[in-house]
């Protein structure tokens, strides 16, 4: 399974972001990638205003998501990334991780852990999600998704691994600050190693967010990493995954029950 991770600075104008994503999706397709991971909040961003994405949310059937669906259908690449979606039943928009394959929305996960930390308060402008996302199967590989701050909470990644995930996926806009690159790298490697899963993580790269997108193997070896605006590729191998789980059978040896989000259910793909 070849995957692509597209790191870039999200523009203030949605149309420019669509053209950037289209370019990366075509590049991913040309290089044989089946999945393209994008950053968090890809409709619109402003490095001086962390709440800009929420204030520029669109309906899930609006023009931005429609364009993403068209790109997926055109290229045959499954797109993964987060958009801010207007919810007519809620007073605030949702931060939604979308998986779009063959032009169809296969998953819409509303972020569980809102970023109320390091002086920011995402919950002031975003509705909290209350459902554990199901795994998504692509070419026999099972993907479990997380959004940014979710990475700091091991329960969601472990729940995905127990449910059968082969790959953990993180779409993020990881804010800059003291030690934040170290936090990001340590947590990405830890989530992969402690669950013996591949991990692919994409962070927006701008004056506000760190970039440092990466792919990590099940033994926490760095497979690919980007510090600039570009697309990187990684090849996930089933034998490597199986060998890691035979060598380090933590999922079999664990004694705790599966984490449970209160009031939530897990559905299947």
SSE series: EHEHHEEEEEEEHEHEEEEHH
Q: Strands of the biggest beta sheet: in what spatial order?
A: 5-4-3-2-1-14
State the distance separating the first and last CA atoms: 19 Å
Whole-number count of domains: 1
Can you tell me the CATH architecture?
4-Layer Sandwich
Q: Specify the overall morphology.
A: globular
Number of helical regions: 7
Q: What can be said about the biggest beta sheet?
A: 6 strands, mixed
**Binned strand content:** 25-35%
Q: How much helix is in the residues?
A: 25-40%
**What is the average of the pLDDT values?**
96
CATH topology: Nitrilase/N-carbamoyl-D-aminoacid amidohydrolase
Please give the radius of gyration in angstroms. 17 Å
CATH class term: Alpha Beta
Structural class: alpha/beta
- Unreliable residue stretches: none
Instruction: Give the CATH H-level superfamily.
Output: Carbon-nitrogen hydrolase
* Number of E-type strands: 14
Tell me what you see in this structure:
With 269 residues, the protein is of the alpha/beta class. The chain has a single domain, classed as Nitrilase/N-carbamoyl-D-aminoacid amidohydrolase, CATH 3.60.110.10. It contains 7 helices and 14 strands. Strand 12 and strand 13 (222-226) form a beta hairpin. Helix 1 (14-30) packs parallel to helix 3. The longest helix has 17 residues, at 14-30. Belongs to the carbon-nitrogen hydrolase superfamily. NIT1/NIT2 family. This is Carbon-nitrogen hydrolase. GO terms for molecular function: bis(5'-adenosyl)-triphosphatase activity.
């Amino acid at each position: 399974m070849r995957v692509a991770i597209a790191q870039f600075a999200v523009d203030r104008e949605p149309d420019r972001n669509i053209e950037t994503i289209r370019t990366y999706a075509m590049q991913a397709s040309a290089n044989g990638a089946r999945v393209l991971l994008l950053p968090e909040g890809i409709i619109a961003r402003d490095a001086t205003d962390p709440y800009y994405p929420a204030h520029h949310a669109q309906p899930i059937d609006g023009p931005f998501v429609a364009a993403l669906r068209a790109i997926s259908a055109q290229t045959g690449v499954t797109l993964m990334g987060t958009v801010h979606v207007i919810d007519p039943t809620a007073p605030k928009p949702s931060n939604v991780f979308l998986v779009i394959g063959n032009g169809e929305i296969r998953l819409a996960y509303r972020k569980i852990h809102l970023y109320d930390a390091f002086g920011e308060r995402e919950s002031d402008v975003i509705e909290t999600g209350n459902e554990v996302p199901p795994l998504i199967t692509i070419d026999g590989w099972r993907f479990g998704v997380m959004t940014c701050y979710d990475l700091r909470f091991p329960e969601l990644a472990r729940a995905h691994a127990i449910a059968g995930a082969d790959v953990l996926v993180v779409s993020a806009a990881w804010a800059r600050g003291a030690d934040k690159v170290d936090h990001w790298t340590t947590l990405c490697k830890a989530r992969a190693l402690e669950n013996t899963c591949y991990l692919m993580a994409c962070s927006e790269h701008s004056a506000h967010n760190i970039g440092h997108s990466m792919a990590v193997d099940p033994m926490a070896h760095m497979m690919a990493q980007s510090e600039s605006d570009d697309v990187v590729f990684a090849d996930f191998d089933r034998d490597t995954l199986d060998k890691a789980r035979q060598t380090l059978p933590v999922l079999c040896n664990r004694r705790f029950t599966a984490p449970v989000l209160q009031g939530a259910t897990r559905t299947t793909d």
